């Protein structure tokens, strides 16, 4: 079984551990650089990306993690994890650090203040067996994706609850893949459906 770490500084750690185990991996929490060096892939959970960014620095994980991602280690970020993996985060804090595995620009808390959370069923490229139930919690969206980024799922304009800019609602990118780096704006770890985690464990096996 591939060994998949879950960054365990903050956020939805247990849920990812449980889903990874169901998806056929051995899941281990990662808090130190020595633990990071022993995993075949890493999940960055949801939580608060600004807090996680600060904790990555104080646990001296920021540079080791950047180095492993640059070196091709498979990574899967959900929600705050997606924000950390992005090359740039809009509406972040000025001192927020990016890990940079994904050539995307994300917008934090993009779906607006009035609707902090919503759920939709999404077609998800690479996941067979019907739509994936997606739970969004103060979620980002991908505002710009580079040419090397594959879009795996979008929320259609009619389902975007609110456009904070007040413009016409547009379809929004909420799941992407670039090489061995996968990210979802939503939380596949809390719905009991491990298909997205299976897709990631498959990427880890291939790497
Ligand atoms: N809004 C959070 C952030 O900016 C992400 C929320 C989540 O991970 N559920 O980091």
Task: List the keywords.
single chain, 207 residues, seven-stranded mixed beta sheet, 30% strand, binds glutamine
Can you tell me about this structure?
L-glutamine binds at residues 47-49, 108, 137-138. In the presence of PdxS, forms a dodecamer of heterodimers. Only shows activity in the heterodimer. Helices cover 25% and strands 30% of the residues. The protein is α/β, with parallel strands linked by helices and 207 residues long. The chain has one domain (3-206): Class I glutamine amidotransferase (GATase) domain (Rossmann fold, 3-Layer(aba) Sandwich), CATH 3.40.50. Strands 2-1-3-4-12-11-10 form a seven-stranded mixed sheet. The chain has a three-stranded mixed sheet with strand order 5-6-9. A hairpin with a 2-residue loop joins strand 11 and strand 12. The protein starts with a strand and ends with a helix. The mean pLDDT is 93. Glutamine (GLN) binds next to helix 5.
Task: Please sum up the structure shown.
The chain is built from 6 helices and 12 strands.
List the helices and strands and how they pair.
Layout: E1 3-7, H1 13-22, E2 26-30, H2 33-36, E3 41-44, H3 49-58, H4 62-70, E4 75-78, H5 80-85, E5 86-90, E6 102-107, E7 117-122, E8 132-137, E9 141-145, E10 150-155, E11 172-178, E12 181-184, H6 195-206
Parallel strand pairs: 1-2, 1-3, 3-4, 4-12, 5-6
Antiparallel strand pairs: 6-9, 7-8, 10-11, 11-12
Glutamine is lined by residues 46-49, 79-80, 83, 108-109, 137-138.
Pathway: Cofactor biosynthesis; pyridoxal 5'-phosphate biosynthesis
Pfam family, one: SNO
Keywords: Glutamine amidotransferase, Hydrolase, Lyase, Pyridoxal phosphate
């Amino acid at each position: 079984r591939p060994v998949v770490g879950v960054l365990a500084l903050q956020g939805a750690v247990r849920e990812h551990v449980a889903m990874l185990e169901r998806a056929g991996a051995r899941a281990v929490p990662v808090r130190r650089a020595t633990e990071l060096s022993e995993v075949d892939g890493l999940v960055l959970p949801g939580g608060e990306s600004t807090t996680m960014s600060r904790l990555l620095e104080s646990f001296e994980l920021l540079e080791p993690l950047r180095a492993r991602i640059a070196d091709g280690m498979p990574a899967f970020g959900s929600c705050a994890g997606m924000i950390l993996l992005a090359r740039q985060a809009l509406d972040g804090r000025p001192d927020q650090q990016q890990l940079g595995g994904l050539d995307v620009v994300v917008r934090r808390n993009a779906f607006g203040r009035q609707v902090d959370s919503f759920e939709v069923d999404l077609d998800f490229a690479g996941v067979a067996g019907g739509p994936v139930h997606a739970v969004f919690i103060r979620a980002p969206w991908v505002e710009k994706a580079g040419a090397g980024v594959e879009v795996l799922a979008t929320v259609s304009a009619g389902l975007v609850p609110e456009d904070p800019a007040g413009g016409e609602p547009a379809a929004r990118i909420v799941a992407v893949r670039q090489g061995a780096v996968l990210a979802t704006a939503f939380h596949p770890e809390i719905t009991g459906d491990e298909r997205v985690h299976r897709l990631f464990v498959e990427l880890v096996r291939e790497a």
